[in-house]
């Protein structure tokens, strides 16, 4: 375990030396430094400094990098094409959401309609059974034919 730490520290020192040596093209791509005081240093893509020919596109002069970040700063206005693309995406998402909720509403309305129809049918059947059971042969029923003074 100790030799891994030594190798990592040597690699870190080599990376720093190469970065200082190439001060006109400085770029650390994905170096994640976790808890330094515990000597647990994790590197991602530190080979970019050891073999710069592999990923030449990552390195750029500082002037170009600062121009890039100035051009795309938080407060810089977006181009009309970017705004149109974002609006198209937003409208498409709204349309999908609208269609989804409309479908859900239609399914619920169909379910409610079926439930109401079933409830109505059950009530009608029960009413018919009750009338058949209590039928006294008179129409209208006997209760309505009573002539009380």
Automatic annotation (TrEMBL):
Residues 78-98 have a biased composition (Basic and acidic residues). It is found in: Secreted, Extracellular space, Extracellular matrix. One of its GO terms (cellular component) is extracellular matrix. The keyword Protease does not apply. InterPro entries: UCMA (IPR031386). The keyword Chaperone does not apply. Residues 1-19 form the signal peptide. One of its GO terms (biological process) is embryonic skeletal system development. Residues 70-98 are annotated as: Disordered. Keywords: Coiled coil, Extracellular matrix, Secreted, Signal, Sulfation. Belongs to the UCMA family. May be involved in the negative control of osteogenic differentiation of osteochondrogenic precursor cells in peripheral zones of fetal cartilage and at the cartilage-bone interface. This is Unique cartilage matrix-associated protein. It comes from Erpetoichthys calabaricus (Rope fish).
